[in-house]
Amino acid sequence: MGTFLDINKDRKYDFYVGGIISIIGIGLWLYTFLMTNGSLIEVPKEVSTYWILFNSYYMPFTMIDFLLGIQHIPLLSLLNIFMPSLFMGFGLRYKRVRIEKK
């Protein structure tokens, strides 16, 4: 995704950069959620192995949740899907502002 982080492109595409990451994440989340027939609030231990693929795809957020002691909640994982694209979009905006000031 780093090749798309170019400030020479139009401003309206800043937040679309991470769109592919979010689309893949939503697909993995839906696949896992449908395989587990689970709820959005808690993951029973017997179906937690289905979440391994999703957790490996979102390893930074999985490690942050583990280190902070946050329980794995599917609804929270769904919200985490959009974090990389938001971070990249705000990063591109910040880079544009910093370069325009110079």
Please give a structural write-up.
This protein is an all-alpha fold and 102 residues long. The chain is 59% helix and 0% strand. The chain is built from five helices and no strands. It has helices at 19-36, 52-57, 59-68, 74-80, 83-101. The longest helix is centred in the C-terminal third of the chain and has 19 residues, at 83-101. The model has no long low-confidence stretch (mean pLDDT 77).
Number of helices: 5
| Helix residue percentage | 55-70%
Terminus-to-terminus distance: 26 Å
Run of helices and strands: HHHHH
The class by helix and strand makeup works out as: mainly alpha
Q: List low-confidence stretches.
A: none
- Find the count of extended strands (DSSP E, 2+ residues): 0
What radius of gyration results from the CA coordinates? 16 Å
Categorize the overall geometry: elongated
Question: What's the topology here?
Answer:
Layout: H1 19-36, H2 52-57, H3 59-68, H4 74-80, H5 83-101
Task: Quickly list its features.
single chain; 102 residues; mainly alpha; 5 helices
Short recap of the structure:
This protein has 102 residues and is mostly helical.
